[in-house]
Amino acid sequence: MKLGLGLRARAMLLRAGIRNAFGKPRLYNLNTPERVGCVYNEPSDMCITDRLMLYALVRGLRPRLALEIGVRWGGSARIIANAMEENGIGKTVGIDPFPEGFRVKPAELHGRYTLIRGYSPDAIPEAVKILGGRVEFVFIDALHIYDAVLKDFNGVLPYLAESAYALFHDTYHQGIDQAVRNVIKANSDLIDCGFITRNPAIGFPVSYQGLRLVRRGVVNSEQLISEGYERNNEKPPPFSPDVWDRDVYHDRVKDVQA
Known about the structure:
Number of helices: 8
Order of helices and strands: HHEHEEHEHEHEEHH
Strand order of the largest sheet: 3-2-1-4-5-7-6
CATH topology: Rossmann fold
Distance between the termini: 65 Å
Shape: globular
CATH class: Alpha Beta
Radius of gyration: 22 Å
């Protein structure tokens, strides 16, 4: 009997080891070239789809100054900080009335994240002062009622940089959806990029999960292209038909015969 129990226990441990080894990539390691694996082990209520998108947005948009409204355990804080660390640029200030619940260790934030105690929108000016400039990316995931989200969004608007992005979590919640729509309607410089993740946790009468992205103003594409060259220590080429419309610069792809 004891031998049988031992065999079963060893079999369970073996299966668990196989799942851990092959079930998910262990990408979170300070010595690896990418830290996206941090999305798998965060203390967060966000579903995996939303975590991946948050990491990808920060990694891709490369914000220099970011604000997080609603921090709780710190899962999204760690995701943002690790994406910024990969970018080699950026700092974030988080606002939460109960920072005692924050679980993330300082070493996991790479010196790119500061948490302050306070309620939004009252604490937004202090957060922006710490950042030292206008906010390029704001993640709003605090109290999930219409009035609170309306105040958070309106409260951060005066501090947003041109072409800044505002990201909202739990946008399948009707109150959040209505608040975002109303602020966009009242501000002609806001552009609704829509629901960029669509895997809701359905509930009644309200649902959760989902990310919605809003952009302020138009994108200065020539500036972004130029900055891409400059980051790689290259001089940007001229913006003219001699560059964009010359056949010599097209992608060279071999014709494949059927």
